[in-house]
């Protein structure tokens, strides 16, 4: 008996392996996860044994079972080589399972996939279209750059095949090749043009996808297709045939003829027509026909209309066509489907600046979306409402937004209140309406009003000299009703401190004036400062108000001294300092008190934008709404660079622009990256800087220290003079420091100006401007210095840099240099323009030598 006969006899005695459907039945019959694992492990053992014995008879069945087991999440990598053997088999059934297995078990990360390149090449030349299709399908799923280069020629030949089944698969493989190896794009350009003339919709669809991929990846290819005269007319012809053709059961989807092909053509037309007048004119008519003839009762039609709107808004279309597109979005807002309403709001938000008048026609519908229960729709609606506000509709729009603010969830209150305040600054018709609206926002948003909005409101109040009496009385009444609202308490306390004499004077022209005595005003301030709900910042405002009132109230001097006395021993150093200074002022320098505590002059703005009552100003781009977040302390340099680096010595660094954040030594050297690898970090680590008084930081172009009222008067002569606490105030002098340009690129220009605070401490005044035509959003400047320095980044004035140098973002950076070394700084800059986020990092090394001299 020969060996072959013996082997055949042995195999004939072995039981046939379980069929796939039997395996599925057994796995589903398992009652527990342990039973399922037992069934699968037993079957995997049988499959492994069969693979070892080179069982060709049941290899296809075993690989099919292995693929099912792999789909359940169990490891099946040992079947990769068996898939290659099935692919090399001449039988179609074996090839089908083999290519399926290769698609599921292999990808470009496995070197094994390169072994099937030759088999795929042979199958692409096969006479049977289904075998060619199997090879192309697998190639489109797993090809790597190496495989793409090897088989690109065969794919290009198949694009010229007469078989539509093969051509559409080859076109999709061409898309994959271009993504992997963009330089092979040119070889597909001649062949792809003829595909658009094919009558098969599948070939047309894949050809459009291939051209779209080429145009989106290469500006030169996009320019080439724009110059080819027949491309746009062919696309217009195909689209026209689709919308004008009758019912075709092969391509009909909910009464629309081949919506997939229509959507792909519209996306390609959008690319070709963008910034090109000739192409745009050629497609204007067909876009109007699609917009008017497409059925909107089904979701398929809405998808086509949405792509049509995007195409119209991106190309150089006619004004009437753009109005038609915005009207389509207006109809979307009335749709019952929440997804369609969200898409409409999102698209309107993108086009509102370019077609304001057309969007304004749908203002009432947009306002109704504020009442939608869906959070995402409300978020987009409130952003769009702020974008629509101008001098003509500010009263009605702000009224609706205040109604929304009263009932809004907490996540909306901070964003809405902040934007109402900034909107009123630009478009308020008069001061009285402005102030009434601000106080309405304070009571409606409560503790959710941001700190920068409080400072902004105080600045506006200081400028409204004719309304000070009315304002202080309204704030007094509001605070008396509810002392738990911290922003209201801060603004009211500041106003009572500055204009308390107007409050108790009674000379206020109002329908229902309130008579307030000195004791009543002091009782209210005392109840606020002693309240358990009062924050530390609120207590500082109130104490400052009590001290300033001492120069306004003539009969309450002793009571004010008693109210301030307990805070001379406060654990809060700001409260303690103010109280001690006041005590020293009234005991040793009482003759200076009226001058030091006189009413503050109106606060000046360094960057004037639009004054109240200006009806002609244009609203700037709205910042997108972000959910409220807690500012986290910086973790070394981890946020400044995104690539991990080697461990470095500990260094005191400050990276994030948090309010009055002190720099502290990092606790983990592994968190420090190589941002400072070119700087000298060998010096001793400095001590943590001493206490500086806490002050509310307004986010205005001109930061104003509201609490530091005692520092508003400067000495008349530059000579040492007596300090309130008995010391000498040394006049800090030195050579002036010239400003420098720290960063300059086509989008942003960042200048550094300098103010010397002490011989070893300088305040760097950062000013970022934008010379381009588009606004820069999400602006963020981060910096790091060697550990011999101490860095303190203050809160920036905002994150929106207006276009055309019409405004600026400012930020103060305080640098302490005890060792008087030469200044060096590394920075990281992040910003967004038209939805594209950019990041830049570098080193500023042109600081003036006189900086710390």
From TrEMBL:
Region annotation Disordered: where it falls in the sequence: 593-671
Origin: domain of life: Eukaryota
Gene Ontology, cellular component aspect: AP-1 adaptor complex
Bilayer topology term: Peripheral membrane protein
Keyword line: Cytoplasmic vesicle, Golgi apparatus, Membrane, Protein transport, Transport
Bias type Polar residues, positions: 653-665
Coarse class of the protein's main subcellular location: membrane
Membrane as UniProt keyword: yes
Biased composition annotated in UniProt, kind: Basic and acidic residues: 601-611
Subcellular location(s) of the protein: Cytoplasmic vesicle membrane; Endomembrane system; Golgi apparatus
Domain GAE: 735-848
SUPFAM superfamilies to which the protein is assigned, alphabetical: ARM repeat, Clathrin adaptor appendage domain
Family annotation (Pfam families): Adaptin_N (PF01602), Alpha_adaptinC2 (PF02883)
UniProt xrefs under PROSITE patterns: GAE
One BP annotation, GO: intracellular protein transport
PANTHER family tied to this protein: ADAPTIN, ALPHA/GAMMA/EPSILON
Protein family per UniProt: Belongs to the adaptor complexes large subunit family.
UniProt protein name: AP-1 complex subunit gamma
UniProt source species: Patiria miniata (Bat star)
